[in-house]
Design a protein that fits this description.
The protein is an all-alpha fold and 530 residues long. The protein has a domain at 12-265. The protein has 21 helices and no strands.
Length: 530
């Protein structure tokens, strides 16, 4: 029997997951379209140097985000059980601690960010020639600090499996931000005004969600003296320590690429890569929503003592991940060159080797996300805390060495090699041993089979796409059709009889059926209320 959270309507975990995933994907898809439109206008009204500055400031703030120490993940895990049981005193105590921790993070980010200001010209390299660089950096820093003051209540909404509420607010904010920013670019062509509009929309959205959480959970507004037991606080701090090591590893891996590219190839190379990164990250963030928005349901499943049902859920999720991210990686490899050339011009094209490595990293990220969703939702992050540091160290060493020797491709190849030597084999091993308590061997065989099938799928698609020629719009449309029809069709033919495919299809049919039934009853309810 599933327990409902505070004030929750009666829905199953599958329904919550479907609702969260659906709205989150709609939000991300809309954000992608709006972001693409904004980037097109950005590159056509401002110089390439501003594109590089944007990426550079984002990476510097990513490094400063290390101050967050994984608090959000640790507190989200701590919230799952009391949210599932409706334990209001425990939720009050947890949210009080959460608020205090995030106030500390905001102060730390602000102080350290200001401390980096005197060294900004040195860090930025040739980007330091961009006028008002320090002002732009301060604007990004201010947005980051304010977000920490308002963001902690979002975890409470998500812990009650209502992430769709957050997504709807970000949809509205995205539409408003894009309309204002494009207007500014067209009429003023002013980078400062462009940044300020983005910051104000983000702050406004965070503030609205903050207030909505207070309305959804009135106990947040009540003065209380609830404090967590010392043992529980100690456990949370241990989790934060472990997650801080994960955070450090992630910052080194994800937030140093632009810095290394700037050092080895100049700020112009950062601008060229940023267009590819924009497209790849748009697709990745959209697909990540599928798995990140089932984490609350996975956490609820673990918190209510139903872990015996975890393996079939995980096997189905991983099966979907390798299919979805695999076909998406194939599509990216075949479609990125004509898309970038059509959107930004041939001067923004990267070598096919670099594109291939980026697509492999994208695919690996997807598989890792599927495992990580379960790993973090079940609070197992202390078991692999030092692995994150090892991967980060290898990534930095490999990327510097290879970047010096072979340029842009070497920076990303170093990231891929560090992952293959650490997380690629250690993550599934630890998950099966400690979470599922089963041998990893059968899964490794299945994993290898998935990779072999995807390699065959890509080979067929690549040959067919190579036969397409002509104007860029035609090439893009034809290749997209080949990737979608052949790429998915081959996998469908091979996997349609698998248990995981039937399970996923059955769950989807069940959710659709229940949604139809709810919609069919709505007019009757309205009439009866009259």
């Amino acid at each position: 029997m599933e327990r409902q959270g505070v004030g929750e309507p009666k829905r199953t975990r599958v329904e919550y997951s479907a609702l969260n995933v659906g709205t989150a994907m709609a939000s991300q898809l809309l954000a992608n379209v709006l972001g693409y439109a904004t980037r097109i206008m950005f590159t056509r009204t401002l110089s390439a140097g501003y594109v590089g500055v944007s990426g550079l400031c984002a990476d510097l703030l990513g490094i400063l985000a290390l101050s967050e120490l994984g608090i959000a993940n640790a507190m989200s895990f701590a919230l799952y059980r009391p949210a599932a049981l409706g334990d209001i005193p425990r939720l009050q105590a947890l949210m009080k601690l959460y608020r205090r921790l995030y106030l500390g993070v905001a102060a730390a980010v602000g102080v350290m960010g200001l401390g980096m200001l005197p060294f900004l010209d040195t860090i930025a390299g040739d980007a330091s020639d961009v006028e008002h660089l320090k002002l732009y950096y301060l604007l990004y820093l201010g947005q980051s600090v304010i977000s920490y003051l308002l963001a902690h209540r979002q975890s409470l909404i998500a812990a009650h499996q209502r992430g769709y509420v957050i997504s709807l607010y970000w949809i509205a904010a995205g539409i408003l931000r894009t309309a204002v920013q494009i207007t500014i670019l067209v009429t003023l062509g002013n980078f400062s005004a462009y940044l300020i509009a983005g910051i104000l929309s983000s702050v406004l959205c965070n503030l609205c969600i903050f207030r909505r959480a207070g309305n959804m959970y009135p106990f947040l507004r009540q003065k209380n003296s609830c404090e967590l037991p010392a043992a529980e606080k100690t456990a949370i701090y241990r989790n934060i320590k472990a997650l801080s090591l994960h955070k450090l590893g992630a910052v080194v891996i994800n937030s140093t690429d632009n810095l290394l590219l700037s050092a080895f190839a100049g700020i112009a190379a950062v601008g060229v890569y940023s267009n590819y990164y924009m497209v790849v990250s748009f697709i990745r963030q959209t697909l990540d929503r599928i798995f990140l928005n089932i984490s609350a349901s996975v956490g609820n499943l673990g918190a209510t003592g139903e872990r015996e049902a975890m393996e079939p859920v995980f096997q189905t999720a991983f099966f979907l991940a390798q299919w979805i991210y695999g076909v998406a990686a194939i599509c990216l490899y075949e479609l990125l060159p004509p898309f970038i050339e059509l959107s930004f011009g041939p001067q923004f094209l990267l070598d096919s080797t670099v594109v291939g490595i980026l697509c492999l990293l994208f695919f690996y990220h997807g598989l890792r996300t599927a495992i990580g969703t379960f790993w973090y939702a079940l609070g197992m992050f202390r078991l692999d805390q030092y692995k994150a540091l090892a991967e980060a160290a290898l990534n930095l060493v490999f990327s510097i060495i290879l970047g010096r020797r072979i340029g842009i491709a070497g920076v990303f190849l170093g990231t891929l090699l560090s992952a293959l030597l650490t997380s690629a084999w250690l993550d599934p091993y630890l998950f099966f041993r400690h979470c599922l308590k089963k041998p990893v061997g059968p899964f490794a065989v299945r994993y290898a089979g998935y990779l072999a099938v995807l390699a065959l799928d890509w080979g067929v698609v690549h040959v067919l796409c190579g036969l397409v020629s002509g104007p860029l719009p035609w090439v893009l449309a034809a290749r997209l059709a080949i990737c979608a029809v052949v790429g998915d069709g081959l996998l469908l033919a091979l996997y349609c009889r698998r248990r995981e495919f039937k399970t996923a299809l059955g769950a989807l049919g069940s959710v659709v059926g229940k949604l139809r039934a709810r919609l069919a009853r709505m007019p009757l309810k309205r009439r009866s209320s009259k």
